[in-house]
Amino acid sequence: MAKSLESSDNVLSILSIGLVVIDIMTEVETYPVEDTKSRSNSIHERVGGNAASNSIVLSLLGEKASFMGVVGTTKHHLELIKDTFSKYGVDYSSMIECAGHAVPQTVCIICKETGSRTCVHYRGSLPELSFSIFTGASLNFSLYKWIHFEGRYDYQDTHLSIQHCRDVKDSKGYDFKISVEIEKASAKLERLLDSPADYIFISKDFSIMMGYADMMQAVAGFSQRVKSGVTVVCPWGSSGAAAQTNGAEAVWTPAFPPKETVNTLGAGDTFIAACIKALCHSSSLSTAVRYACQVAGAKCGLREIDQLSTLQFELE
Amino acid sequence: MAKSLESSDNVLSILSIGLVVIDIMTEVETYPVEDTKSRSNSIHERVGGNAASNSIVLSLLGEKASFMGVVGTTKHHLELIKDTFSKYGVDYSSMIECAGHAVPQTVCIICKETGSRTCVHYRGSLPELSFSIFTGASLNFSLYKWIHFEGRYDYQDTHLSIQHCRDVKDSKGYDFKISVEIEKASAKLERLLDSPADYIFISKDFSIMMGYADMMQAVAGFSQRVKSGVTVVCPWGSSGAAAQTNGAEAVWTPAFPPKETVNTLGAGDTFIAACIKALCHSSSLSTAVRYACQVAGAKCGLREIDQLSTLQFELE
After folding, report:
1. What is the pTM assigned to this prediction?
2. Contact check, Cβ <8 Å, A36/B118
3. Record's Pfam families (chains A, B) (predicted)?
4. Would you say A144 and A111 are in contact if contact means Cβ atoms under 8 Å apart?
């Protein structure tokens, strides 16, 4: 059963808001040549989507995690999503079912030889989580210590929803932090740099699109661009990660690659989840990005994400 | 509901024996470059496998069709297979469920720009239809007018099963015909040329592997190689098809391409089904291959196979 969030339970939760999709993962020895027939080593369906993955990793790291997002009602896919959230103890009581729409699906071809991940995503007709759906859900904000948004192409709705959280927090005196992820290299998402969030996670792809050649340039530039007091965090793959709060010094950490890289899919989602966890535990920004790189690095050495819960990471 | 085959029903059925799998079909504008993320136009699951497709096409062409094969028990996949056979009126009472094994799956990437079909197949642990499973199923041979085998890599089991059918036919005086398809370009399948079948369908890929440059050379060569009285049929894509009975003259037909080709997937299965139907109706070999090319060509102009039943084809 999913953990249910009740007000009598005074452990606060981390809410991740965004996509839940079905990933169809198939592993091949070599990337398939167009117009040929070949064999794969495995195929399986699993739950994906950045926000859903954030929630699962947070739960594996021992946090109380909640997911909010719009989901289609394809029977066996919806069952797989609910079963998966239940298995990991992620609360999905704020997930919104849209009858008559399919769950979006991504075909992921994992190439054993090169380690590449080729993904083809079908979004279908499922509506995005609009501002009106978000406010209509009447979240109980007293339950959360952190609210994280996956920045979507409908950036205006994400922006309005973040502003709404900020307004509720300020007016009611809640203590939760707000963060947003800018992942896609889409110029439209630049608007989310103006978000009234506390933390903005910015991908390497978006940073490069914005003209930054490395993570130190990226955090220096973005931290001047964002609102006062906002912290930008830039994970940069095998280079590590950097972060900087507007008006303060940058911090950075190298990456912590595993002895053998077996699966890099979801490393970005893992980084964000681990960083949020560390910051929830009052770690310094420097400690948080270092911890996040350690957890994301260890994840790349695991075939299954579940194994994360068996590893020990020190939060200094 | 599936048509059930009862002995009181004196319309005989065409039994197709071989694979039933799940095809995960996704259409893209351009073939995905390795290690990138892109969007697809659609994704859906459907029932595939040569023998399963043969059965469905035969039913769409108005024949009483039966399927025999081994199937895994992945819940929603097994449901999709049963629902699909039921929808098309294919009898699957001889389908053998193997608990604890997944249904094999094929990811098919259909490229709109080039018309290419790139397929990655995962077979998993599901056992092949062995000779002992085949005989253990105790088929009621009196129900069939034709028994068609999809030649599998386990050619010995296919060969023994064909021999068993031949023995039953000869000893009991049944009137059914026997055919086998050699599709994969695998040298192992050469042994199936010695099958005691009445008709052997041989793919262009296998023919080319055996050193034949065109369909007329292929039928000339193969018809000398097979047993006396056996007919070989070689569909050759956009060139048409040829056929020849050992000891007789070759016949051939050009292809009948549609005005616009929209989906060539399954054209080979359609050709075989249509050819069997025509031969069941006592068409000459020449008429049968011509009819098969007409139906397979028309199929390539249809987005959905279901539309086949709305078209009219004349069996001269």
Report:
1. 0.83
2. yes
3. PfkB
4. no
